[in-house]
Amino acid sequence: MSEIDLEDFLNTHGQLLAAVEELSEEQLTWKPSPQVWSVQEVVSHLVDHSFVISFRIRDILAGTSAQLPAFNQDAWVSGQYSNRGRISDILDAFHGILEYNSLLVGRLSDEELEKTGINFKGETVSVKAIIQGFTRHVHGHLGQIERIKQAQALV
């Protein structure tokens, strides 16, 4: 497995900023259909995912043997009314959690990065894999944001 690229991890915030910087409030909250997320809801989901991976990493480091939690992402997004908020607040939260997690990860030894837990699918995952997976997850959602923007342009 490749090393953790903390710079790539931290750059996810800048990539999100760039993806939304020119969008109006209407564009941020536009949805092609009720069951599809808006750009703002996608970013809000990434904050939720940040909370979840924060817990998972700390649970592994604490040596907890309980299965790492899953979360119902659609219910979390719809239940918090993200489109009624401000994108700047959502991005600030994302950045704060990202920075805090990067400080923790930067202090970990190679041995600690290899510590594992059991995810909600029953798979063994390491702290390193969780961080790498989060970065890939953000990159995937950046693609989703671009597709939403393209769909708006067609309307």
From TrEMBL:
This is DUF664 domain-containing protein. InterPro entries: DinB-like (IPR024775), DinB/YfiT-like (IPR034660). Residues 13-145 form the DinB-like domain. The lineage of its organism: Bacteria, Bacillati, Bacillota, Bacilli, Bacillales. Transmembrane segments: none annotated.
